[in-house]
Amino acid sequence: MASKTRIILVTLLSILSLLAYSSVNAQLSPNFYATTCPNLQTLVQNAMRQAVTKEARMGASILRLFFHDCFVNGCDASILLDDTATFTGEKNAGPNLNSARGFEVIDTIKTRVEASCKATVSCADILALAAREGVVLLGGPSWTVPLGRRDARTASQSAANSNLPSPSSDLATLISMFSAKGLNAREMTALSGGHTIGQARCSLFRTRIYNETNIDSNFATTRKANCPASGGDNNLAPLDSLTSTRFDNNYYKDLVARRGLLHSDQQLFNNGSQDAVVRTYSINNAAFARDFAAAMVKMSNLSPLTGTNGEIRRNCRVVN
């Protein structure tokens, strides 16, 4: 009798722990705003279409903004907070200073969403949806965005400085930094494919084109024309040399041809553990698109604030 009771108790505890686990993981749901803001996705789509039509690069900028948000204490819109006399945000951290952009696009979406569904939708969810729309508008894959994140009341400039990979990172560092966020090496390589769109500043790739040897010489010469050995730090070059405003697998073709713009890009194809993955993506766009979409969903689930944690900001730039 005692053993039967013990079995029942153990079973009950197992069920309770499973329920607790599922409730934590069920707090984000694609249908979170189905009744409270049913036109949310249309509002985001329309605003992003206008922004990307005006400037194709904006799709990449919003994607990067989302990545830089999620890697610093989770996807909580902390990157959107402005510095004030009494508050230090993440916008002036090294990886974001003079490079993070698209804040005004998120402001526009937030204003429209507030007009339709007041004090309902978080800035964190708006950013997650906008990132997907930017990719789709440039020809990339779509994915189901889980929703229900809330907005942080705090930010961390120090975490932004330490948690975001640098353009000078080597492969071991990249694998380690993504692993710290629960993303494996293949997912890291897939997410790096976000560099199929967007541009980088000369100061971030100068060392690569002047000093590195694992680079196509014609490509290096082409890039030097707009990135002198000194000066021109803010001159831009496309991260994908072939189709920088089209979300496709040409980034990986560049890597195989030793035309990666950043040191960290070429590290993915440099006689290392990711060479086979890069080769696969370079010849199989469908495989890349599938893996990228799945990795985006996984990244978007990084440490969200849910329930009564955080808040729903009225203005994405300031805490309520």
Secondary-structure map with pairings?
Blueprint: H1 2-25, H2 40-54, H3 58-70, H4 103-116, H5 123-137, H6 157-163, H7 171-179, H8 185-192, E1 199-201, H9 202-211, H10 217-224, E2 236-238, H11 250-256, H12 263-266, H13 275-283, H14 285-300
Antiparallel strand pairs: 1-2
What does this structure look like?
This protein is mainly alpha-helical and 320 residues long. The chain is 50% helix and 2% strand. A two-stranded antiparallel sheet has the order 1-2. Ca(2+) 1 binds at residues 69, 72, 74, 76, 78, 90. Heme b binds at residue 195.
Overview features:
EC 1.11.1.7, 14 helices, mainly alpha, 50% helix, 320 residues, calcium, hydrogen peroxide
Instruction: Tell me the quaternary state.
Output: single chain
Class from secondary-structure proportions: mainly alpha
Sheet with the most strands: spatial strand order = 1-2
- Poorly predicted runs of 5 or more residues: 2-26
Q: What does the average pLDDT come to?
A: 93
Main sheet overview = 2 strands, antiparallel
Total count of helical runs of at least 4 residues: 14
Terminus-to-terminus distance: 58 Å
SS elements, strand count: 2
- The 3D shape can be described as globular
Fraction of residues in H or I helices: 40-55%
